[in-house]
Amino acid sequence: MTAPKLSQPPKILQQAATWFVELQSESCDEQRRQAFAQWLLQNPAHQTAYDDIASLWGNLDELKTTEVAGLNTARSARPRVWRNGKMLTISLLLATVLTGAWLDFKAPSTVYQTGIGERQTVQLADGSQLQLNTDTQLRVRLSWWRREIELQQGEAMFNVAHQAWHPFTVHTGNLQIKDIGTVFNVRHDNHGTAVSVLEGEVALHAGRSWFGENLPAGFSRKIDAGGHWQKPEKTNTKQVAAWLNGQLLFDHTPLTEVVAELERYHAVRFAFADPALAKQTLSGSFNSADLKPFLQALEKILPIRVQRQKQTVVLYSR
Q1: Per-residue pLDDT of the chain in tens (318 residues, 90 and over written 9)
Q2: In DSSP terms, which residues pair with 219 in a beta bridge?
Q3: Fewest beta carbons less than 10 Å away: which of 53, 259, 275, 306?
Q4: What is the radius of gyration, based on Cα positions, of the chain?
Q5: What is the dihedral of CA 283, 284, 285, 291, to 10 degrees?
Q6: In angstroms, what CA-CA distances link 196 with 61, 144, 236, 237?
Q7: How many CB atoms lie within 10 A of CB 44?
Q8: What is the 8-class DSSP label of residue 31?
Q9: Among candidates 201, 270, 181, 283, which has minimal Cα distance to 239?
């Protein structure tokens, strides 16, 4: 293994490494980012040095699993040894690894949640955007090594800022979803997890398995609560993303599934006075936030009479 070549003086490289570490931290604020931008403008060598450090980090996965020549010597070397370019590379690599490990250990986690009928947009420090649907709770942990999301319940759309050296993983139920530069939707409930990819591709890993299966754009896949896979299916991306605009799209959807979807957005429960009504199907676009127009449309579209009793909506045959 040949260590990456570093072309700038040690002092500038050390400054670049310090900036690189700080910029990966979630606590790095806009003021520090502006200070970094000013540092870059001070000397053309600063940008080159920063690119060298980023390249060094990009090679870290390979370097850390390879026996680097001279490593034992580097650990006990006197300061004069660092004049050698290879030793400088190794010293910066070790400092980068140790600093990154410390930041990873100290990285805080943040919980975001929405109530019934609420939506929320979360902008992460790495440039990724999360959009939370109704009754959703997730935990975010950003560190220098990784970006990890734990979707505890509900539904979220992930628009990921892809960084090959900084993996983005969503954990939910019995599934790990690893980003490969994507926009994807994840829904998790008592029945299992459904993943739909709108752009790019994700890798799906069941449990702690190292082996995963890639899911490309335009497809969805479900895994039940017991960890059993369903076959990938082509997905209607407009239907998947409709909730972002407060809409629900149904396409010959059984009424039992329709009312279950409405129960996610409103503090009500539906009951079928006639069980046969559950097999009726419904198509159309509806406002997820307003239940009354939906119930009125239901009576017009289907042979159904609606009666609301406080927090229960009873559906009768008409």
Answers
A1: 444 556 677 778 778 877 877 776 666 778 888 888 889 999 988 988 888 777 766 655 444 444 433 334 434 444 444 445 555 555 555 565 555 555 555 556 899 999 999 999 999 988 899 999 999 999 998 876 778 999 999 999 999 988 777 789 999 988 999 987 789 999 999 889 999 999 999 999 887 666 678 999 999 999 988 888 899 999 999 999 999 999 999 999 999 999 999 999 999 999 999 999 999 999 999 999 999 999 999 999 999 999 998 899 999 998
A2: 234
A3: 275
A4: 26
A5: -80
A6: 29, 28, 9, 8
A7: 9
A8: H
A9: 283
Sign (positive or negative) of CA dihedral 203, 205, 210, 211: negative
Query: Which residue has 């790019």 as its token pair?
Result: 200
Residue 200's identity, in one-letter code, is G
Residues in the chain: 318
Strands 192-199 and 183-189: antiparallel
* Position 31, amino acid: Q
Residues facing 149 on adjacent strands: 140, 170
Contact criterion met (CB below 8 Å) for 150 and 127: no
CB atoms within 10 A of CB 89: 23
Q: Name 113's bridge partners.
A: 137
Looking at residue 237, its amino acid is: T
